[in-house]
Amino acid sequence: MILCESPKIELICADCMDILPTFKAKQWELACVDPPYGIGMDNSNKRTKPSRPNSYIHYPDFRYHKTDWDDNRPDKLFFDNLFRTTENQLIFGANYFCSYLPCGFGWIFWNKMNGLNNCFSDGEFIFSSKGVKSAYIELSQFHSLSGGKDRIHPTEKPTLLYRWLYQNYAKAGDKILDTHLGSGSSAIAAYREGFEFFGIEKDEEYFNAAVERFKRETAQADLFKPIQKVEQLKLIE
Question: I want to staple 100 with a disulfide (CB 3.0 to 4.6 A). Which of 79, 88, 164, 215 is the partner?
């Protein structure tokens, strides 16, 4: 499904492992992917910290449908295909995939600004194949999401985070691939930054929600132009 011609934004509902092997070597200049970490977020559980230390209560969040997409992490075959078909990579959850990632490259730490008492992780690690310099960004995980109330996916990330990644790790004319589209934030950011983009999502319900979100948010795209540099970067030498 092509949602936009200029820049070309194409989204497809499929298993990425059915699509990746069909791509040519280095067909995409940049992969920006957020694969499942295998930690059970597919069951859409909320977690809250009770008074008893080191214990958590799990209960369903009925905003999301129950699926099995986060039961397992991608295997070596996925990463072999990802590195074969893309020139550079940005990979969320890098600490979950260390055995598949090459050493000697930079990592990005995204500080989610959760606060000291939040039961979730303080941030996420992103692998970057572009150089050895690591970077740090502070941005609330709920930026422009009404404290999380407007999320359409349990692991939805802010569009602004993807815009910052593209501004700092992509160059004009790059074609960007996302193998796990999720909420569509990566596609919206690519549209606003002027990059050609191809996104894959295997869950039909989340795919349809991402398509509708893309149409809704890009209908007001003029509000975001001219594009301004996102000033959120703190470098760690």
Answer: 79
Distance CA 66, CA 63 (A): 10
Contact 139/112 with Cβ under 8 angstroms? yes
Q: Which two tokens stand for residue 230?
A: 């996102």
DSSP 30: E
234 confidence band (pLDDT: 50, 70, 90): very low
β-pairing, 57-60 vs 106-111, is unpaired
Give the whole-angstrom CA distance, residue 206 versus residue 170: 26
Residue 154 CB neighbour total at 10 angstroms: 21
| Cα three-residue angle 148-156-23, rounded to 5 degrees | 170
Tens of pLDDT, residues 162-179: 999 999 999 999 999 999
- Cα–Cα distance measured from residue 30 to residue 126, given in angstroms and rounded to the nearest whole number: 14
C-alpha–C-alpha distance, residues 163 and 169, integer Å: 10
Range list of β-strands (E), 112-203 = 123-128, 134-138, 175-178, 196-201
Tell me the pTM.
0.85
Note the pLDDT tens digit of each residue in 212-226.
999 999 996 555 444
Q: What is the CATH number of domain 2-40+68-236?
A: 3.40.50.150
Query: What is the residue extent of each domain of the chain?
Result: 2-40+68-236
Cα–Cα distance between 17 and 19 in angstroms, integer? 5
